[in-house]
Amino acid sequence: MSAPLDHLRTALGLATAGVPVLPLRAGKVPFGNCRTCAATACGGRPHMLTPGTCRCPRPCHAWAAATTDTRVLTSPAWAGVWRQAQAVAYHPGGAGLTVVDLDHAAAVAWARQTLPATRTVPTTRGEHWIYRGTTRSVNSVREGVDIKSTMSYARWLGPGTGATTALPDAVRALAVKKPSPPRSARCAVTVAAPAGGGDCCHRTPAYLERGIAMAEQRITGAAAGVHATVYRTFLAVLSTHGRCGCLTEGHVVRLFTAAQAKGESARHCADAWSNARTALGV
């Protein structure tokens, strides 16, 4: 059997078992975005999406493209992708799993001394330790150690050996995001509000203030999917106030500050704001 067909057969077997899968191209990276999503027009990078939000006809957006639907995997839209595929990846969080990716021998030695035994899969330079349960995905939690679970993908290298045990608190603790140092408003925003023209029907203090306050609350109240929430909130604000001149840089600073308080970087805020403006044409 040729390599592409072998990859597809592996993917179908995993999908049937309930593991969301996607193809990888050379370099262990996902296939590029489809034309429908060129220039991140549908919302941005993979971590800004939630599963199922992209309606593209073929694989895109890395982990968000992972699926257990065998009809999708064998559809004509995916046929060309599988012919080019170099490997199969899966979405651990979508399968209720967490992968502790140990990149070298020293990291493996640390895991053996620190973490409870579980199913292990050999990699090129180290091992994947597979646990039952999910957490946030974080790279470089320590030297040579990445955590891959929600909103991430891992290369499928075989079933491994050993029994899969419950995700330990030690791994959850590694995945806890450390609070970011306070940022001044001067550093928090590097983009200007869109320029409007003519009279503004929304230039009433109560209407505009209520809209910005609600946007801040929506971001602050996000319990999960912060990237997607920030982008959708920016879209909502710009769709209402982006064309008429209501928004000032002070309003944008407030939105960025709320997003950064939830862990977003200034760069991610600027990208989301730019993507929202592009999507709306403002």
Task: Give structural attributes.
six-stranded mixed beta sheet, 282 residues, single chain, 10 strands, globular, 38% helix
Characterization of this structure:
The strands form 2 sheets. Strands 4, 5, 6, 7, 8 and 10 form a 6-stranded mixed sheet that branches. A 4-stranded antiparallel sheet has the order 2-1-3-9, covered by helices on one side. It is 38% helix and 14% strand. The protein has helices spanning 3-16, 70-73, 76-84, 105-114, 169-175, 185-188, 205-220, 226-241, 249-261, 266-280; strands spanning 21-25, 29-30, 87-90, 97-102, 119-122, 127-132, 138-142, 145-148, 154-155, 165-166. The longest helix has 16 residues, at 205-220. The chain is built from 10 helices and 10 strands. The protein is of the alpha+beta class. The protein starts with a helix and ends with a helix. α7 (205-220) runs antiparallel to α8, α7 packs parallel to α9 and α8 packs across α10 (266-280).
